[in-house]
Amino acid sequence: MQLSLQTILRLRKKRSSRRYYWRVATRFLEVQYGSIQYMEMLKLRERELRMPIGLSFTTCDLKTEGAQHHFGILNTDRQLCACVLALIDGNEERCQLRQMVVEPSYQGLGVGRLLYEKVESWCRGLGVHQIQLNARLSAKDFYGKLGFSECGVEFNHVTLPHIKMTKVL
Ligand SMILES: CC(C)(COP(=O)(O)OP(=O)(O)OC[C@H]1O[C@@H](n2cnc3c(N)ncnc32)[C@H](O)[C@@H]1OP(=O)(O)O)[C@@H](O)C(=O)NCCC(=O)NCCS
Description:
Elements: H1 5-13, H2 15-25, E1 27-31, H3 36-50, H4 59-62, E2 69-74, E3 80-88, E4 94-102, H5 111-126, E5 130-136, H6 140-145, E6 149-150, E7 155-157, E8 160-168
Parallel strand pairs: 4-5
Antiparallel strand pairs: 1-2, 2-3, 3-4, 5-8, 6-8, 7-8
Bound molecules: coenzyme A.
Coenzyme A (COA) binds next to helix 3, strand 4, helix 5, strand 5 and helix 6.
């Protein structure tokens, strides 16, 4: 579903109602590694996280993904509009989030926050005590708004500056 510019501007202006709108109009789901929906997520990640920096996922990049959890948000037309990966450590105390991305025409509408809050709730259900991630500097303030704190020094990954961030649950 493509939103008109007018709709996007209206939703951006009415912050409280836009959050309510997305909470009722979208669906959160975990998808199976290797499924059709997993492949859609992979395409979204490739298009938005790798192609803009001139890179592409390699077999080596993807080889551990079978051991990770794959979450997404569907729009009202059941099309994928956001996704993120979660890796739980052996004793289920820590979760590493990876490669969060919201499809560009849905950015700024509360979808990223919604996806994160659903995954955080899933983590709490497992008994996870801490969530960590490596944030692109361009997304650092987004994670700050979700309650994450910076930890450590900046480093380069896939050509971009990143910083480790954590949140204690
Ligand atoms: C970063 C990203 C996941 C955020 O998702 P989103 O749906 O656009 O974010 P939301 O609309 O849920 O925003 C939640 C809050 O964070 C803020 N925010 C969102 N992106 C931000 C950014 N890049 N910098 C600063 N603040 C940001 C919003 O203004 C909003 O603040 P508010 O609650 O005070 O209104 C999304 O913009 C994206 O996919 N970016 C490109 C890929 C990327 O950088 N992924 C992160 C890899 S580490």
